[in-house]
Amino acid sequence: MMPAPVLFLEQHxxxxxxxxxxxxxxxxRQLIKTVRLxxxxxxxxxxxxxxxxxxxxxxxxxxxxxxxxxxxxxxEWDYLRLIADRSPLSAGFEAAxxxxxxxxxxxxxxxxxxxxxxxxxLQTGTASFxxxxxxxxxxxxxxxxxxxxxxxxxxxxxxxxxxxxADHVGEHGEWLTNLGVDGTPSGQVLWQERADRFPGIxxxxxxxxxxxxxxxxxxxxxxxxxxxKELSADVIRWRELGILEMSGKTARGEHEQRKKxxxxxxxxxxxxxxxxxxxxxxxxxxxxxxxxxxTDRYELVVAYAGFKIDRHIGG
Length: 315
Description:
The chain is α/β, with parallel strands linked by helices. It contains twelve helices and 16 strands. The chain has a five-stranded mixed β-sheet with strand order 2-1-7-9-8. Strands 10-16-15-14-11 form a five-stranded mixed β-sheet. The chain has a two-stranded antiparallel ribbon with strand order 3-4.
């Protein structure tokens, strides 16, 4: 499960006290130097920031846009903005990710962090200023409450890779070089080749957007592709043996509260069907593939692929 080539920048990793401009500038330049070195190791690497980059706090009295204000620092500011603008996470996936997270991960001092939360879910890393004690090391200890597939909340703790100094790039070098390297096809290619890759599965047109949104996520997308392969193999066996036995974790239907979200028109057959049967996939998210078992055609019809549904999937 290869993570996406993105580091999540923690906007509250700066100094807790007021500092002079010179000290804030050193911190900003250390971040830029670290990102430049990381980008040499992996040219696909990008930064993702939960807030506008300009609002990230280098200290309580300096935002990074104020520190790097003016023609003198324009090259450094433009570089940082360019890397932040190249985040591989699609808007659709990022919005769904935000909705799926109940509580943010916390640092050892108890501070909540959206950057840690995203890095935890997608199993990637963070970038930070080196001002706050929680963010000076190459590993950040994080605690998080994670929802299991059964809906139970479990507390967990793990150390996540952090980049706040140049030597952290060397420490995480091998991991960084391989970040995002995977043989999984792009979302566009997968959609174009879906009939050949997944025989026995027919996708409603709306699923194209689901796949493209997930294709930017790294591990969840890889898990989705693997799960579709398993479902395709199930259908092939069904056609050969006359019995449909689903591999992996599946559910035959949804409870009434969610079932109302599952009615979608299947234009090819000219009727609205209930797609409440679903297969599970993870990769750090509560992933679901909603489908209809067409016993007349011996095929699965997929209407949705993404996070656990909380609204109508045809919308």
